[in-house]
Each structure stands twice: as C-alpha cells, then as structure tokens.
Amino acid sequence: MMDETEFDRSRVVWLVLAAVLAGTLGLLVYSYIGTFVLGIFIYYAARPVYRRLRLLVESPEIAAAGALFAFEIPFLAVTGYLLFLAVRELEQYAGAGAEIVAWFLPIPPAELARGIADPQAYVSSFDVASIADVLRTGGDVLGPIATFFLHLSLAIALAFYLLRDGGRIADWFRDEVGADSALWLYASLVDRDFQVVYFGNIRTVIVVALLAVGIYNGLNIVAPPGLKIPIPNVLALLTGAATLIPIVVGKVVYVPTAVYLVLRAIESDPQTLWFPALVAIVALLVLDLFPIMVIRPVLAGQTTHRGAMMFSYIFGGLLFNWYGIFLGPLLLIAAIHLVRVGLSELAHGDRVTAEVTTAHGLGSMPRPDKEPPDEAATADGDAAVKE
Q1: What pLDDT is stored for residue 172 in this prediction?
Q2: pLDDT tens digits for range 33-53
Q3: Other C-beta atoms within 10 Å of 196: how many?
Q4: For residues 224 and 269, is the Cβ–Cβ distance under 8 A?
Q5: Are 177 and 89 in contact (CB under 8 A)?
Q6: Do 300 and 285 contact (CB within 8 A), yes or no?
Q7: Alpha helices in 178-243 (DSSP H)
C-alpha cells in the first residue's frame, strides 16, 4: 500500500512533467503565434459553412475540407485574376510594366523588358554565371513567398483538424469540467464571441470591397478626361482585402492611386489636381476611417463594446505585428468574459459560479440550454448540427 510520502512524491513528479510539457507547448505556440492565430481565424471564419455542410454531408472530413475550400475560393480567384491582369499589362506595356515590377523585385527593368519581349532569345543568352545569378535572385525573392505559403498551409491544416474534431474536444472538456461549471460557461461565451468577431472580419472585407467598387466607379464618372482611376474593380478588391491590415487599412491602395493621379494631372493639366484631392479625401473618409470606426466594430463585434473592439484592432496590430489584427480581439474577448464570470467573486473571496455576475451587456449571454461551444456533429455523424 502506498504511504502518504510516496503519494506526494509521485504527485510532484507528475506535476513537474505536466509543467515541462506545458512549457514546451507554450514555447512552440509563442514561436509560431502568428500561424496559430491565423489558423484559429480560418477555423472560426469557416465554421458556419462547416456546420451547414454537416447537415448534408455525413463525413466530417469532407465537410471540413469543403468549408475550407469555400473559404479559400475568393482568395484564389482574386489572386489569379490579379496575376492575369499583371501578365497582360506586362505584355502590352513591357517597358512601363517592367519599371513597376522592378520596384518590388530585384530585377533591372531592362532585363525584365527583354525577357518579356523575346523569352526564347533571352533564355538562350544565359551562361552559367547568369543562371547562377538568376537562381540567387530567385531564391531571395521566392524565399519569403515560400515561407508565407508554408505558414498558410500550417494554419489551414490546424483549422481543418479543429473543424473535424471540434465537437469531440468540446465534449471532452465539458465532461472534464462539468456542464454546470463556471469554466464551461466561460468557454462557451468566449467561443461564441470569437465566431462573431472572426466571421465578422470576412464580412467586413466583403462590405468594404463592395463599397470601394461604388466609390471608385462613382469617382470615375466625375473624373476629368484622361484622369480616371485605373482598374477600379481590382483596386476595390484590394481595398477590401487591405482592411485586414492593422492601421494601414485602405491606405496601401488609395494613397498610391492618388499619387499616380497627381503625377498624371501635373503632366496633362495642373487645373485637374482637384480630382486626386477628391479621391484622397473620399477614400480617407469612406474607405479608411469609416471601416475602422463603424463597419468593423459593428460586423466584427456586435456583442462587445465597439470602442473597446476598435482599440483591440488598432493596438493589437501595433503591439503584435500583422497577426495582432486577430490576436487583439481574442485577448479582449477572453479578458472581458473573465471579468463577467469570475472577477467579482475572486475580488470578494466568493466561490466562482456558472453565472454572469457583472457587465451583462458587454458580451454574449448564456443560452438557457448551455449548449456546447462547438455544436458540430461528432465523427459518427449521428448528432444533428444546430446553428
């Protein structure tokens, strides 16, 4: 029979082992925090589609893959369309296109123009030293691109397994902590508001893109002859995608466009400089400030204080780099529900119960049936999926 000393020693060993493993896992997550946060964002953005597919598809693997594919279709379509336009522009205007591309790639414009004009002759002129230079340059350019797609693939894989196994994970956690526990209530509220925020980001991109289509094409109606906004629909799609970039938002699109229009106006007729100024002012108000202060807090934070949500996007991006646009709201929601569920009891030395005791209007409220965070059916497909 094990005495108390042996029991305590065994317990200490297990606690040390758990602490070591938890620390290692925490270091892994910290080292690739951007990838993990992006995977969580993709998961919550695709989960509404997954739940609807589970009503029609028995296999959770097929439903998860279909939901992720539906989520990626717009990204792939826009990327392919932009590449098509770029190639077509380079074919039509080799010199000008080469100068533009040379701003982003370390390739001399003259070399790029030669390659576009006669690819076969250009390739046949290479010697061993030239090929080595091209390979080195290509490695410098393609390295960051390959790293990006590697992290994107890992994030998509994480989202796939969360979609497929989310129901089982939720069931396991509920069985461990109890359906009537404060931890289960906290997890349910956090999960519910995560979906509101992350799925709201996708809707924000769509709304801003549609708004930009109307703004750019409307401005072209009043534009002076020869001074219209080029490829307005493509710029509108880029403006919508740019809303995911912290602080920058649409500036990455409309500022270069306005500068281009200023240069064109100076060359043709300086009296038409009013149009680039109009483009900059309208874009600043409607496609920059309006999405930050109104659209995103409304669509991606209906259950959370709009001002707090706005600052979580701004300071999250400033503090945590690009992934702060996803991590900032995550931390805000986790902190808000900690205050609502447990802070008052902890401050007064009371027992934490499965009730929202303060800040009732600051986030989602518990559902009467205390349904699990992920209502998706388990792998056997027997359970029905509820929205």
Answers
A1: 92
A2: 889 988 898 898 888 889 888
A3: 19
A4: yes
A5: no
A6: no
A7: 182-221, 232-242
